């Protein structure tokens, strides 16, 4: 029995010292010290020993048990330490590795132009209003004094969303004149920037989607002089204080009289050059005195109130402001282009 115990001690200690994981260690504990373990098996034979030998062997068996328990405990600590080291090695942060640079974006040039524009109008006491891009034909056309048979309502020009031509992608921001008067009432001073849609092929100056900024002023005693004064002041803020303007007669169904406003070409000073297509002037907006029918359509008495409205093209304004030659650059979102602003 003595040899048996010694053999167990030796093989067990060797095995324990060789373990690499705590699960293996636990298996060995069961193998040697468990209820059905090898040491227990030897102890069960104690009954067959003589009375002198029994306490000696008992003592020795306890010794073996104690040394195995101690060895398991020590090895367990060793394994825990190793596991910790492995984890630390895995999670090491190398503070000398260069960091990842975060690229910070910036405002699109067109929105920079829009912000400047909004600022000018806010300073003049205008409100900024927002409206739907999916619009009713009633608002986009009818209430704007553009009857059913008007050529502007052609399917070839407008993105209709139903067969009956009742809903559409707005072709202009002018429906916001109606919405503003209906919801806000008069007097009113507002601008409303937003997207508009037309069936145009893409080229250097056209896109099926572009941006307009509508403006509307309605109050008692508003005249064409207010229209000219306001627009001249705004244009000089945007294009420079010396900018010359020209108000040309034009036609819009919802304004009377109507005009288009040109600025003298900043490139050639009016001589004519490629930028102004030889004209010497560049068109920047349409405007006019709100048609009495439009006022009436919104429940406003044209004998008491009058007003003016205008519509700027935002892309064109950004192109002038930043000397951008091709409209497509504004929508392509090529970072090499956008980074320049
Ligand atoms: N809505 C017109 C257009 O798209 C511009 C405009 C707005 C004209 C307001 C007069 C008054 O061409």
CATH second-level architecture of the largest domain: 2-Layer Sandwich
Give the structural class.
Answer: alpha+beta
Number of domains: 2
How many helix segments? 12
What does this structure look like?
The protein is of the alpha+beta class and about 350 residues long. It has two domains: about 1-90; about 110-340, BirA Bifunctional Protein, domain 2, CATH 3.30.930. The protein contains twelve helices and nine strands. The chain is rod-shaped. The chain starts with a helix and ends with a helix. Phenylalanine binds near residues 174, 255, 287, 309 and 311.
Which descriptors apply to this entry?
single chain; 341 residues; alpha+beta; BirA Bifunctional Protein, domain 2; 2 domains; seven-stranded mixed β-sheet; two-stranded antiparallel ribbon; 9 strands; 42% helix; binds phenylalanine
Brief rundown of the structure:
About 40% of the residues lie in helices and about 20% in strands. By secondary structure, it is α+β, with helices and mostly antiparallel strands. The strands form two sheets. It has a seven-stranded mixed beta sheet with strand order 1-4-5-9-8-7-6, sandwiched between helices.
Give me the secondary-structure topology.
Elements: H1 2-18, H2 22-33, H3 38-44, H4 53-90, H5 109-123, E1 127-128, E2 134-136, H6 137-140, E3 167-169, H7 175-184, E4 188-197, E5 209-219, H8 224-239, E6 245-252, E7 255-264, E8 281-290, H9 292-297, E9 306-313, H10 314-322, H11 328-332, H12 335-338
Bound molecules: phenylalanine.
